[in-house]
Structures are given as structure tokens and as C-alpha cells.
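Let's do one together. I've listed all components of the complex below, 824 residues spread over two lines.
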Amino acid sequence: MPTLVMKFGGTSVATLDRIRRAAKRVGVEVAKGYDVIVIVSAMAGKTNELVGWVQETSPLFDAREYDAVVSSGENVTAGLMALVLQEMGIPARSWQGWQVPLKTTSAHSAARIEEIPPENINQKFAEGMKVAVVAGFQGVSPEGRITTLGRGGSDTTAVAFAAAFNAERCDIYTDVDGVYTTDPRISSKARKLDRIAFEEMLELASLGAKVLQTRSVELAMRYGVKLRVLSSFEEQTDTSGTLVCAEEEIVESNVVSGVAYSRDEAKMTLISVADRPGIAAAIFGPLSEAGINVDMIVQNISEEGRTDMTFSCPTDQVARAEAAVKKAKEDGIINFHALDADTEVAKVSVVGIGMRSHTGVAAKMFEALSAEGINIKVITTSEIKISVLIDRKYMELAVQALHDAFELEKAA
Amino acid sequence: MPTLVMKFGGTSVATLDRIRRAAKRVGVEVAKGYDVIVIVSAMAGKTNELVGWVQETSPLFDAREYDAVVSSGENVTAGLMALVLQEMGIPARSWQGWQVPLKTTSAHSAARIEEIPPENINQKFAEGMKVAVVAGFQGVSPEGRITTLGRGGSDTTAVAFAAAFNAERCDIYTDVDGVYTTDPRISSKARKLDRIAFEEMLELASLGAKVLQTRSVELAMRYGVKLRVLSSFEEQTDTSGTLVCAEEEIVESNVVSGVAYSRDEAKMTLISVADRPGIAAAIFGPLSEAGINVDMIVQNISEEGRTDMTFSCPTDQVARAEAAVKKAKEDGIINFHALDADTEVAKVSVVGIGMRSHTGVAAKMFEALSAEGINIKVITTSEIKISVLIDRKYMELAVQALHDAFELEKAA
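Okay, and this is what the predicted structure of the assembly comes out as:
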């Protein structure tokens, strides 16, 4: 039998009625002849409640106990989903991480999946079980303790199961009906994409399009798992949602696939840094140790042996970044004249695998922003992405202007 | 190191503050030099929520999934308790049933404990762990699935651990401060007992004194586990609460230890039954098959080959009992003239191991009731108990009168 993995997120299983609705979707796939592995999250809100309790016990809690507590939400959903499927006449049973077993490292709260031996579940499929409902987000360490994979870990669980069971596809049911050319709340012209390449999805995800957890997309790319994102709240057909797949499976696409944004960015500039080999390492070493998520980095042209170094990071890390840089100065590791922090910026990016074979994307982007009078503060580029930092107040305008300029409302 | 088992029920761990309070009690015992095994229930209300969800999915749910869902509440408390203890500087970790492992039969939702190998936990004690926090009420079946022991199973878990680890004592922390001579809500003279025999506790528990689950008392009696019932809401000394122990450890006691009652009883009488060998089996077989909890049974003196047969059962089972008896008549299994159901009765009992060596208890009981003008409808006796059915409206009066007559307000 071909195997299908279906993953339902917290809002898709928030109530018994929603679990029933999700179960109906599972029933449709079972009727098509699939052996189905369903990965479930905790009912919406439950994980936050559990995390809140743990945090209240102690600021520096034992991550092993955190995992033991927090993983319980998924167990509840898995059992309920199995019960609802049985009530529909579908042979189903629930599996907790340790029962599969989903083996992970011992890095509690951020464990990595090491192995998913398929034997136990396959044996039940062979005995007539049609659906294995697996509690997402959790596994078991070599020491036999419960681990969790970190927030959004249920997406990763789903993709890992799809890889381990050679599933035909991994369907991620969520509260949006697919991946859009941009955020529909910002541009009413946003269009749902039928297909998107793994690489594009990675750029969109890390840029703030929070549809899929980045790790799950990386894993899908590595193992060639076809991922489909679709809504658990709408009737589905075979072409519903967005398929995240290898570049080769996308026949036609626009040069630019989407416009992403990240609102809470800050731009920090070290003015007049001594320009010498190793200076970047001297600056970004201490920032990394302080846990700052440095994103864009730009070094200006050096004049008379000194240069300006600009980088961006999330707004809420600015204070920590300033402290780290100042301490590095005090310690004599780096030297600069002034530190300038601009916390009123946002990042806007255009993303598309078509850029690899098309030129002129950057020029068109800058032109569109210029036509709206938007000043660009920092630019970075990669093979399939161009990002700019701009004043935050222009963010929505910039997204709309770029969506129009690249005519993303039209399919290729 | 001597081992102590401490069990905290749902109300004792209902909030983080209460868990902290319970943890302080644990800390006191650790300071005395004990290795402590803490058994925890789910936070009050949580199990009911989970059971409600399961029941909503299906009237005839799969008990294996029920267990997987319902056991999650205890896991949460166990993790939180371990975190709070760690925060107090006490080396502690949580254990779920399958991690111990607490091995049970496969009778899901009503599993029996088969074995608790102490090696895993003892190894951690040897490594310096001071407290093992174990999720109560749950275990693992030979098939590797999660089982639960039925309602109140955490008491049973606690006693089983005390037996498996040869604990010095098993302290059951609850929302009452011990076992009383009768319900203090009914008689203001009710007195807390310092000690009570296992046998007495069993009679009191099954008669409605819901302090300890019957199974846990049976288990404690079989393995000679000293049980102490005490309040988690009061400061404790070494003589707090009530010790439930073997008869031999009770030096002095009143002839009668307590007065128990059961409010919602019904008395049913089959009038003019053909009196022949096997008639009792013919009547009570069908009732047993219908799941009726028949309690007292009285057969009147036979006259001319016919007799009246009276039995009691819970009020809410009367309709089912009537149906079962009538069907047995239609099927020709039994024959009687009329069926009389009195649903306005209550049961009152006096219990005491002293009855074994003292006579006149029954006479004194009947006299006390007679002095209040209370008519006795049915009488049954056992070695350490005398029970009567009376009109429900006299129940409180009867309890008070008996408490006075046997002077239970005075210690032996």
C-alpha cells in the first residue's frame, strides 16, 4: 500500500469538532487506498498552558522535566484522534514517541531526530491497521527519557516519518490554504502558489512566512519528501494547497515567486572600525556568544584603514547586542568610534528560483521602491533572494509596490 | 537509606502553589534522611476534562486509547513536582509508568499491577537522587501500551510502591486530616482516629467513607504496608493523621470504631417466591448479569413453601434491577407474586474489630435506634460490622444516636 503522512497543527485539532473534521479528511485518503500516518499537535493553547506552568516553577528549569510535561498535550490529541477514527469504522491506534520509537539525541527541548525504525508501525499496517496516529513534537532519548524537538517540531516529525516510510507525500494541514505570493493582509492581490521550490520556501519561511517550520523544509529537501501545505478548514481537491517540491518539478514559474517581510528588525552600525584582517570575526564572535541572531551584514568601503560595519538583528536583541559590542571594545578586542542603532527598520525581500536565470531583478526592485520614494538602507543578495532594509513605516507600501512591479497576481 | 512513599491526591496538587506546598512536605522527609518516592495524581479537574473528551468521541470507546489520553494528567503533575523539588535544591526526577516500568495486566482502564521492578529507581537513588516522582494511576501492558488502574488508582500505586520498595510507611496526603469516627458533617462529635485496623478501614471505605480506595487498603493489608492518611493542608507532626495498620499494632481501641452510612440505597422485596433449593441463585444470577451491585440480602422464614426475598442496591440501579427480575419471571426462571421497591431507605453501620471479642453490640445498636423511634427494615451482620436499613429521613439522626450510644467521642 502507498503511504501518506498527514499532519494537523494545533488550530486544526483545537476542539473535538475540529478533530472530527480532520478525521474525515483522513478517511478520504484511507478510502483512496493509502496507509496513513497522522501526526498531531497539541490542541491549540494546551502547549502554552504547560510551558507557562514549567516557567513558573523555575527560571532555569530542567529541560528533561520540561519535555516530560510539555509532550503530554500531543498524547491527548493522538488518543482522541484514534478514538474518532475508530468511531468512523477505520482501524486506528495512537503512538507516543517512545512507542514508535522515534529516537532522538539527548538535547532536551531541541532534540534532533536520529532514527525512526518503521517495523512496529509497519507490522500493525500488515495486521490491518489503516491509520497510525503519532504524537508529534516528541521522541525518546538514548537514556529512555522523553525529548521534544522544539517549537514547530510537529512539522519536522511529519517530514521525518514521510522519509522513514517512503511516503508518497506529506500533507501539512494548517489554518491557511497554502503559500501565498505575499501576506494577503498586506496586499489584497496576493495569490496562492500551486507549487514552490524547497529553496524558495526556506527563504520565505526564515523571512517570516510562518507556514512551515524551517527545519521541516530542510529535511524535506534533503530526503526529497513532497510537502503539501493546505487548509484543514476548507474542502480539498487534488490540487488544493501549495506543493513544496524540488525545483525540477516546477515547469513554469515567475522569476519572482513571492515578497516576504520581517517587521521587527534593527540596524546597527559600528562607525569607524579599524579595518584589518579578522575584524569581522572579532565583532561577530562576541555577538554570536551573546546569542544574537545577526542576519544581514554589510561592510562599507574602507577609507584610510577604517570602515563602517553594519548588521541587522531582531529589535528585541538590540540591548544585548549593544552590551556585547561595548564589552568587546572594553576588552580591547575591537575598536570603533561610535555605535548607531536604528530600531525603526523592516526587511523586505523578493524571492524566486527564476532569478538564477534572469537578470535585472535587483534593478526592477530598486526602481519600484524608488518610485514610491522609499529609501534603501541596506541591501543583501543571495542566489534566489534580494533583501533590503527600509524605514518600518514604508514596509506595507514596499510589499505592495513590489508585488505589483513583479506582477505576482498573475500565474506564470 | 529507609524509603518513604508519599502520595498526593488531585486537590493537593491542584495548583502550582499547592504543588510547592506538597514539595515542602517532601523536603521535610528528605531532611530526615529518607529516600522518598512521591506518587502524584493529576491536578484536580484535569482527569475529568480528559475523560469528558473521550466520552464525547464515542459511547463505546477503545479503552487502550482512553488510557493513553487520561494518563497524561499525572505526567504533567509528576514533571512539575520534580521541577519544584529541584528548585528547592533536592535532586529529583519524574517517572512515567512505562519508565519505571510499572508492569500491569492488559485490562485497560482497570488494569492490575503485576510487578514493579525496583532496579531503575534504586539505581538513581544510589547515584544521589533523593526523590523519585512517579505518575500515579498508570502502568504499561505486556504489549507496551499505557494502562490505567481505574479511578483512585493512585492510592493503589502508592501502596504497591511501598510494598515493592519495602518502604517504612506510605503516607497518603489528601484533603481531610484523617479517618473519623463518623462524618463530621453529620455529627459534630466526630473524632479523628489515631489508628484504625485494615479490616475496619475496608468496611468504612466500602460503606462510603471515601478517604482511601478499597483496593489500596486490601493491598496494604496483604503486604503489611503501614498506611497513614493525613492532610496536605495542615502542618504535620509525627502523630498527625490516621495510621491504618494491622490489628496487632492497635493496643487499645473502642469496641466500635466508627459509624458509617450510605445514603442512596433502595430496598427491593420479591413477595411470595417459591422456596426451593437454588432459588437464590435463580434470582441473583440475572441481577448479577445486569450489573446490579446487590449489597444486603435477607430471606424471610418460609411459610407453606413460599418465602419473601429482600435485597438492597443503589437507588440508581432500581429500574435495571426491576427489569432484570421481571424478565427472569417471564423467562420462567423465577416465580413471585409481587415486587416491592422502597427507594427511600439508607444504610447505617457500626464497625469495629472489638466486636470480635465483645458481645452486646447489636443489642445496644438496636436499643439506641429504638429509643429514637427509628424502625429497622433490614439487618445484616459480619464479624466486625452490623448494618441496618432504615428510612432515609432518619439517617442523620441514627448516625448521631449511634455515635452517642457507643461514646465514640471518647478515645479508648
